[in-house]
Amino acid sequence: MVIVVAQLDAAVAAYRAAGFTVVPGGSHPGRSTRNALVVFEDGAYLELITYDAPSPQERWWQVLSHHGTGLVDFALLPQDIEAVVAAARQRGLARITGPHPGGRVRPDGVQLAWQTARQATHDLPFLCADVTPRALRVPEGEVRRHANGALGIAEVAVAVRDVEATLARWRAFLGAEAVADGQVRLADCRITLRPEPQRARGEGPCAVSLAVAGGSGKVELPGC
């Protein structure tokens, strides 16, 4: 989950105060962005990202500058990004692009590399596949333990203009088995589609529910 923030240090402090373990991410070469991560036991994570300079060509910056901080995007981890993109195109998702190279430099100087692919509309997630070992980008161990008991992402609510059109794109994206009974089905996370055609921030993730130790309770994301 990508959460765009105005001030990274303040966001990190707020998440730590809410019981999350937050680790520095680093900076992205060729962009004006820096990030920090909240990584969960299941390998999913929240990315807190900020801009150090205006980047009007980037949608995340546009959302931040016009609508403020908050959830802005989400991603899936493909086993073979080229195969997933090719299959999606064959099923009719013509407006998907990629793979595109990306990367980040950690505060300790380690350089990370990945590839992304994106659909033109924002009711679908983008794909992000590691080139360098994933453990370098998404740390393991004690950093995945959180004082508030958060274990992972259980549900993502996505604001969409047209539920049926979005379901059709999901079928093209991941195959017919990704949709059942009018719902998107992923192995470890529920995707709930909310029809909000007039939403100012446009289509995209609008709420997140976290799995919590013990199977009960609720953890709020600061500022979301």
Automatic annotation (TrEMBL):
SUPFAM superfamilies cross-referenced by the UniProt entry: Glyoxalase/Bleomycin resistance protein/Dihydroxybiphenyl dioxygenase (SSF54593)
Pfam family, one: Glyoxalase_3
Transmembrane segments: none
Name of the protein in question: Glyoxalase-like domain-containing protein
Residues annotated as domain Glyoxalase-like: 2-172
Species annotation: Ramlibacter tataouinensis (strain ATCC BAA-407 / DSM 14655 / LMG 21543 / TTB310)
Alphabetical list of InterPro entries matching this protein: Glyas_Bleomycin-R_OHBP_Dase (IPR029068), Glyoxalase-like_dom (IPR025870)
